[in-house]
Amino acid sequence: MARKNSRIVGASQNSRVARSQGYQKRSVATREERKRFLIVCEGKKTEPNYFIGFRNPRADISVHGTGANTRGVVEQAITLRDAVAKSADAYDRVWCVFDRDSFPANKFNAALQLAQCEGINVAYSNEAFEIWYLLHFDYHDAAMSRYAYKDKLTQLLNHEYLKNSTNMYAELYSRQSDAITNAKRLHSGYKPCCPEKDNPSTTVYLLVEELRNI
To answer: Are 211 and 37 in contact (CB under 8 A)?
Structure first.
């Protein structure tokens, strides 16, 4: 009888070990499948606070706010990417997020060209990142100064819009699909596309879609 119990105990232990090993294999596989994103933003707070809100179990998202100009954002992205390019922490996808604002057209275009040459994706907005927020509520195709966004968003949010808010991702999340639809429609309406002149426009939806679809 003792030998029978021993066999039962042994089988139980083997089963636990097998389950444990299976769990470990699944955990390793899960880690290997995770995509590493580097998102480098022009602003130090507005854009980083928004993208930090993303939570995806299949992605590691590293967000940096630079406070730099358009080309400076791309250069910082190159530096951060290359620093880990040959390590296990290498990034799968690199994105820059910056605005047209009042930057000279040649500098804005130079940043786009540098990013393209380096294989870096750009989520730009003309004039400002807040056009992405507005598109959560409705389709907007009338040219706007970046100074007009605050009043418009305050009206739509039913409370004062604070540029450096840490809650915008969560507050707008339920309308995110609408924003993507509106941004696509807006972007596709420019033929030919001319980023430095297309006001309003934004390609932030491209980055958001990628993060959602992992």
So the answer is: yes
Q: How far is CA 146 from CA 18, 30, 60, 126, in A?
A: 60, 42, 31, 9
Is residue 192 reached through a cis peptide bond, with omega within 30 degrees of 0 on the bond before it? yes
For residues 24 and 153, give the distance between their C-alpha atoms in angstroms, rounded to a whole number.
Answer: 48
Mean pLDDT for 100-121 is 95
Contact 48/63 with Cβ under 8 angstroms? yes
Q: Strand 93-99 and strand 121-126: pairing? A: parallel
Q: What's CA 52's distance to the chain center, in Å?
A: 8
| pLDDT > 90 in the chain, percent | 78
Between CA 41 and CA 45 the distance in angstroms is 9
Residue 146 contacts residue 100 (beta carbons within 8 Å): no
